[in-house]
């Protein structure tokens, strides 16, 4: 005998497709294809920038420059406003800061996810423009 096996290639087809091949070689080539596909996929990098509801202009601009650098490196930027203690009552102020941040980045990035509150943090995601 030749040491070949009957391998089902696509079980969902009608009728199912089978081939007579060496099973070990078939598995090896399948893994090789999957590895190539995985290598071709783009890695998504997410950088995080944290602000407070009362962040001052200098700190704001400092973090804005970091965000511009990250977006130019094709990384997504996750901007969040963290509310400590009772500062949660300034939700509107946090949202205003995030929208001001997005407005300042309008030429290098676009909003992927609008600001939304998750527990004690308000999160917004900005992705780089192509």
Observed structural traits:
two-stranded antiparallel ribbon; Translation Initiation Factor IF3; alpha+beta; 6 strands; 4-stranded mixed sheet; elongated
Q: How would you characterize this protein structure?
A:
This protein is an alpha+beta fold. It folds into two domains: 5-39, no CATH class; 46-128, Translation Initiation Factor IF3 (2-Layer Sandwich), CATH 3.30.110.10. 37% of the residues lie in helices and 32% in strands. The protein contains three helices and six strands; from the N terminus they run E-E-H-E-H-E-H-E-E. The protein has helices at residues 23-40, 57-72, 91-104; strands at 5-10, 17-21, 46-51, 76-82, 109-118, 121-128. The strands form two sheets. A four-stranded mixed β-sheet has the order 3-4-6-5, with helices on one face. It has a two-stranded antiparallel sheet with strand order 1-2. Strand 5 (109-118) and strand 6 form a beta hairpin. The termini are far apart. 15% of the residues are buried.
